[in-house]
Amino acid sequence: MDPLIAVAGRALATGDPLGALNQIALRDDAPALALRGIAMAQLGDLVRAKALMRRAARAFGPKEAVARARCVVAEAEIALASRDLGWPAKTLDAARVTLEAHGDRVNAAHARYLDVRRLLLVGSLDDAERALAMLDPTPFPLALRVAHELVVAGIAMRRFQTKTARAALARAERAAHRAGIPALTAEVESAALILNTPAARLISSGGEKLLLLEDVEALLASKALVVDACRQLVRDASAVVSLARRPVLFALARALGEAWPEDVPRDTLVARAFRAKHADESYRARLRVEMGRLRKVLGTLAGVSATKRGFVLVPRAAREVVVLAQPVEDKHAAVLVFLVDGESWTSSALALVLGASQRTVQRSLDSLAAAGKVQSFGRGRARRWMTPPVPGFATSLLLPTPLPND
To answer: pTM of the full predicted structure?
Structure first.
């Protein structure tokens, strides 16, 4: 092997992109282009990194299938880092098959981890778990073991399994320390921070308070009836009713949950559900219809009883009713929750993970930009959006993914 390429490769493996560039910065042969691309990616210049990886893939000859496949895997990692979630998964899968066929199990496993991380990012937790179950990190390098444990922790946090998440993060921390790569250590520390910062806000008859992720886990396992405003559902320890596609019913359920055990006046319910300034007879009639629908949807979880001035929520088995809300509520919170990770996002990627139209997402981005909460750079398809992380709040509960028993 070319000695300069070997030295540059070792430098990149230890997280020293500048040391690698000192060896191959002026070279344009295929191996050097590939290593330059990885170095630029480690330095954060993802646009140049992507261009270099594509040049490297073209520079490798048709007989160098393994090298070309490695370039494809590297480009997929750059796409994931730059939140280009529309990158073709079939291309990555084909590269993985090539690597496995030629005995390059480490890079093939890296390709699988990239796919799992993408599934986790877009909220496909079941698919991510199935793909992760096919991987045994024991024989892999320390960097891949860290990646494995971070995915395990990410899935566990989204499932509200804090003990599993903490154990995975502890293993990741030990592996990152042994690897001696600062970027890996920083990534583990960033993931661990989520467990130690407020993840949600509890609204009950006793007032409001912020909850850590483990507090949320305990709440969901308790005998309380929870109106979850993060995911727009109503649940207790035994059942879940999703109202994500029925916003009027959820608005009514939240209003009743916030007031419990007191009732809510009809005028207040009309204003919350229909955004009407005056509750005339037509709105009151519509309110009765929607309350009947809510009563039917909640089924065994709770009843809805009429009172002299309005309606009250009556839990069937739960001891109390509480509302679980986002730590900071904002009209465009669903978009902000992804942008606060500090990465740059395209509007198309945000639309994909939110399950919304790109035009709706673009309107939210324009409003946030006008308020100075986000900023963009680039133009056209290269335009990306980002914002500095909001200190003091975790965002895992805000991600719009289905619960395990949905």
So the answer is: 0.76
